[in-house]
Amino acid sequence: MIVVLNKNIKLIVNYVAGPLIMFFLLYTVARQLEKQPHWKDSFHRIWDAAIGNQRWKLFGIFGLMCVNWSLETFKWQLALITVQPIGFLRALKAILAGTCIASFTPNRVGEYLGRMLFVDSGNKIRSVAPSILCSLSQMLMTLVAGSVGIYLYSSLAFQFRASWLSPVFFRSALIMAAAGATGLGLVYFRFDPLVSGINNWLGKNHKTFFIPRNFSFRVLTGILLIAALRYMIFVWQYFLLFSLFGIPLMALQVFTGVSVMFVLLAVVPTLTFLTDLGFRWVAGIQIFQVFTSNTAGILSVSLGVWFINLIIPALVGSLLILRIKLFSSK
User: How far apart are CA 55 and CA 154, in angstroms?
Assistant: First the structure.
């Protein structure tokens, strides 16, 4: 009776979980858009840009999205080599599936679960450490660039006479960002001793939870360089979107504003990245209003980046989850 029940549960999970995930994703996106008062105007601006003379910029942003997720795939392949080799297409599917599940889990923890679905059965738990390493590399780059951005933003902001900005606040933010980057950098480049200690703590009798190590300095540096490339692609996307919506910002201004905003998005806890659209809009307006008074354009840029970089990949990931079985039939 228990065996039959277990098989029925597996059948339900295999054939119902995928559609439910996709439905919940679509429903949540619709609900989040309804909560934003100007989302229709932003979509109209994006549509007008898509059919205008400068639509090549929008196509370029989509192209950069593909490059961005390809780089994340290479990064995970490089980190996962200590566990098992994995092909590019399979790794890409894992990345997109992880993005889908991360879209409605706190602090993107579902990302690890989504990637595990495409790893061999005996290596699923072991794949978590490489995934964490990839996340650490991106967070480290966010804090490093954010430290530079906060310093530049304080100078540019006072140059533009934004009297509401506090020098004390910027000094404190810069110290915290730099300290965070230093601490995380030490953890990142000492990842091997860290996981070795965890393995020793777990003990030899817990083979299932063995955490891979042997992340060489060369591998760690390569992963970090890929994270840096991904970061610059994000900035480039923002620059193209601002230009597309007729907001003439300099590249330095875009980098400065984006780096400060990314630090805020990283340190301010949100339930999921599906529910942080409102925060993205508020943060974007507060940060970029120093450089431009075009509030409608800032809202459109924030919505465009959110939809292109997060929602579209998550939707593609939900389609991939529909095609896999979460449990074997045995």
Answer: 34
Name the residue with tokens 């965890």: 198
d(CA 139, CA 102): 16
Residue 313 to residues 93, 159, 280, Cα–Cα distance (Å): 10, 39, 18
Question: Nearest 10 degrees: CA dihedral of 193, 196, 197, 202?
Answer: 170
Among candidate residues 30, 33, 31, 38, the one with its CA nearest the CA of residue 295: 38
pLDDT at site 307 = 84
pLDDT tens, residue by residue, 111-151: 888 888 888 888 888 888 888 899 999 999 999 999 999 98
**CA-angle at 126, arms to 124 and 129, nearest 5°:** 120
Query: Judging by beta carbons within 10 Å of its beta carbon (0-12, 13-18, 19+), is residue 298 exposed, middle or buried?
Result: buried
pTM of the predicted protein model: 0.82
CB of 262 within 8 A of CB of 227?
no
